[in-house]
Write a structure and sequence with these properties.
mainly alpha; 0% strand; 197 residues
Length: 197
Amino acid sequence: MRTFLPLAFWYWLYNQLFFFLGALGFFVIHFLVAFIGFGGMDTLASAILTTLYAFILYKLFGRFLWRNRLQQYNFSNNTLIYASLLPLILGSVVLTASFAIADGKIYNTMTAMPMLAAINLSLSYLPLAKSVWTMLILGSIFNLFTLTCFWRYCRKYLQQEIPWLKLLIPLAICLVICTIVIYGITITYLPDDKVGG
């Protein structure tokens, strides 16, 4: 617990900052590409610049946040796994629970967005996703990216390789359960004229 709490905090902060800076950079890049114009190659230019920006963020977080911090403690594999999975699992559970409490209504679910933003920013832009399940999947994809980066940091700075199965199995179980609950709630609260077609 003595090492878990500091690591969980720093991983949460890293996950939040990575998403915030990543989303900000994504919109700035797309704005600049649209403004400058690349003669029909806007999509390719955006993809190249976004990939380059993500690589720069990966390098910066590794150098200034994780290099010294990971070497400071002797973390076990389980500590690294649980701390890195906590934001996504907790965020997924809160998102699903909020949807259930709101009786399957998207508008009412949005009242939980400030709390979700505090837990996991990548799960809190429901107005853009327009669907709780879409939000869950998009947030999971982003978190898999930050998990992959963290896995590489651990391998590079700790010479410690986290088993991917130990990372993915609890995550998959959580996502399957949340998906079943979301689907069940959606079906339960469908208008009568939409049930069965």
